[in-house]
């Protein structure tokens, strides 16, 4: 009996422990399962506002002078003097003397031509007198002999007088040419402008036709701006008369770490499309690009590359939103009053690199996602940034 109790007692204790553990597990209270809503995503929103829109067309181009000239020597000779402004980058006024060519030979030619004119005048006077004497002699002969026939031109010295007059005209023409050549030894500026490059200097012998310098006028600069076919629908370009274009344009460029702007006007269209690039070029003009009158702003230098914003036609009242707010082309995610988002198909009148101009699909005052979630779902809850 003692042996049985020795082996049975541990088993009974183990069974009692298992029974107690099972009783505790069955009798413990059940924890209620509460569904957890997914966290609302944080988004940045904008408010739709209908505003009057004037379309802007952007382009780029290089600044060029409206008028450029290569100064050519019209006479030959040694250059004896040049103006201080006759250097690359030098400014000059219309009528300023830029280059002087040795005038001594040309002054001599003027004197010789003047002497030739004097001799020719003497010859004409002499022939006039002789013709008068010949006519008087013929009249006297006719009074003595009624049978005397009419006097010939040679008798009256008409050919000799005509030759003398022609000689005078030739001498006067030579005189005019000699005076003109003397005048051409002084090369004057044809306009207010600037020297782009200098090709000759003091002591150099130049022939007729030698290039002395490349210059350009500073009254107007021009920028040739390419426009693609889609841009043209937003501009009031005349269909037939391209000479009446006046589109306000703002040019901008960065110089010295700062942005500068210049006001320009599109004044003409080239009228044909570039076959290789499929663009139409218009020309914008900037008056006084170097600000020679006031010197109050940054000069617009020839050769600079500038961006252009051309003021186009009015688009009416539109909602303007950042272009990145749209998803899949024309889908805008609108934020409701309950802070849920819903997709909205919108009608886009125009879009550019920065903005989309919406004509229909979103109302004034509605909120929309500037930064939609990566995988948005209709009815998704969101939190508003800020």
Hey, roughly how much beta strand do the residues contain?
35-45%
* Series of H and E elements: HEEEEEEEHHEEEEEEEEEEEEEEEE
Profile the largest sheet: 6 strands, antiparallel, barrel
| Ends distance | 84 Å
- The top-level CATH class of the largest domain is Mainly Beta
- Taking all Cα atoms into account, the compactness measure Rg is 48 Å
Any overview of this molecule?
The chain is of the alpha+beta class and 386 residues long. It folds into three domains: 43-53 and 317-384, conserved putative lor/sdh protein from methanococcus maripaludis s2 fold, CATH 2.40.420.20; 58-66 and 218-315, Efflux pump adaptor protein, beta barrel domain (Elongation Factor Tu (Ef-tu), domain 3); 72-215, RNA polymerase II/Efflux pump adaptor protein, barrel-sandwich hybrid domain (OB fold (Dihydrolipoamide Acetyltransferase, E2P), Beta Barrel). Helices cover 24% and strands 38% of the residues. It has helices spanning 2-27, 104-144, 158-183, and strands at residues 41-43, 45-47, 50-65, 68-72, 77-82, 91-92, 97-101, 186-188, 193-198, 205-206, 211-217, 220-227, 247-255, 258-274, 279-287, 305-322, 326-327, 331-335, 341-345, 347-351, 355-360, 367-369, 382-384. The protein has a six-stranded antiparallel β-barrel. Strands 2, 17, 18, 19 and 22 form a five-stranded antiparallel β-sheet that branches. A hairpin with a 4-residue loop joins β14 and β15. The protein starts with a helix and ends with a strand. The model has no long low-confidence stretch (mean pLDDT 86).
């Amino acid at each position: 009996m003692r042996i049985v109790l020795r082996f049975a007692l541990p088993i009974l204790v183990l069974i009692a422990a298992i029974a107690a553990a099972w009783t505790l597990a069955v009798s413990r209270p059940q924890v209620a399962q509460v569904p957890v809503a997914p966290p609302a995503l944080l988004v940045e929103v904008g408010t739709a506002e209908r505003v009057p829109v004037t379309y802007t067309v952007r382009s780029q181009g290089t600044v060029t002078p409206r008028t450029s000239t290569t100064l050519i020597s019209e006479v030959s000779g040694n250059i004896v003097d040049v103006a201080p402004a006759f250097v690359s980058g030098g400014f000059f006024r219309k009528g300023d003397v830029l280059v002087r060519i040795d005038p001594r030979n040309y002054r001599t030619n003027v004197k010789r031509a003047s002497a030739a004119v004097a001799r020719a005048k003497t010859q004409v006077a002499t022939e006039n007198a002789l013709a008068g004497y010949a006519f008087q002699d013929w009249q006297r002969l006719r009074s003595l002999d009624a049978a005397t026939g009419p006097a010939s031109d040679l008798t009256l010295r008409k050919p000799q007088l005509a030759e003398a007059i022609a000689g005078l005209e030739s001498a006067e023409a030579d005189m005019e040419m000699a005076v003109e050549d003397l005048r051409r030894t002084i090369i004057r500026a044809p306009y207010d402008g600037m020297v782009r490059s200098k090709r000759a200097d003091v002591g150099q012998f130049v022939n007729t036709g030698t290039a002395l310098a490349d210059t350009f006028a500073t009254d107007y600069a021009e920028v040739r701006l390419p426009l693609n076919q889609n841009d043209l629908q937003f501009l009031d370009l005349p269909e037939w008369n391209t000479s009446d274009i006046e589109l306000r344009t703002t040019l901008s460029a960065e110089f010295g770490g700062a942005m500068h702007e210049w006001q320009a006007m599109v004044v003409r269209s080239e009228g044909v499309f570039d076959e290789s690039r499929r663009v139409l070029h218009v020309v914008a003009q900037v008056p006084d690009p170097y600000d020679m009158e006031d010197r109050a702003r940054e000069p617009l230098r020839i050769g600079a590359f500038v961006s252009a914003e051309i003021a186009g036609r009015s688009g009416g009242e539109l909602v303007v939103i950042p272009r990145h707010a749209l998803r899949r082309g024309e889908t805008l995610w609108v934020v409701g009053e309950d802070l849920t988002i819903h997709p909205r198909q919108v009608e886009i009148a125009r879009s550019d690199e920065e903005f989309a101009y919406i004509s229909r699909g979103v109302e004034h005052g509605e909120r929309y996602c500037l930064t939609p979630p990566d995988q948005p779902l209709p009815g998704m809850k969101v939190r508003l940034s800020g």
